[in-house]
Specification:
heterodimer; A: about 110 residues; five-stranded antiparallel beta sheet; B: about 110 residues; mainly beta; four-stranded antiparallel beta sheet; 11 strands
Amino acid sequence: EDQVTQSPEALRLQEGESSSLNCSYTVSGLRGLFWYRQDPGKGPEFLFTLYSAGEEKEKERLKATLTKKESFLHITAPKPEDSATYLCAVQNYGGATNKLIFGTGTLLAVQP
Amino acid sequence: ETGVTQSPTHLIKTRGQQVTLRCSSQSGHNTVSWYQQALGQGPQFIFQYYREEENGRGNFPPRFSGLQFPNYSSELNVNALELDDSALYLCASSLPLGNEQFFGPGTRLTVL
């Protein structure tokens, strides 16, 4: 069964303190791995798609990387506005849909 | 370019009632997926519509049903509401062969 596990569940950082979020996955055939940001009570906001091991993508203070078993979201010198829940999801090649299988997310709090 | 929109924003129903939630997809996107997100959890796939047909379904009972219209907008209907149906319902749209899904703001459903 396809599964996504994110760690830690929650992370508190000081402004400027860099860290990484982890997403471990098992999937029958990886079509893509996705990172989303979700603010309280809002819909997830798309950040990155990664397709193959070794791939990296960057956006402002965020950098996502992918291996055959896990993905990391690196946050460099975070600011309070980076506080949110970060969700990881995978798509597999099975079936007729492009459904996403999500982890439970990492709640990030960045304190000034 | 208009993003994904959902209505209503919030809804309160009582157990046993029926509810209809609505979604307008992003311009150019003809594939719509619905997800249920319980508090503290990641979104769970309900079903997906493409060309007005359901082309995939997650582990949800038949009382969860949907429609897609010629303009690609969609409805999610839930009959015989149960307390556990209380959640954030998310609609996401994508291109037919595209992997990225873009989410709307969600509808918060509370069942009393």
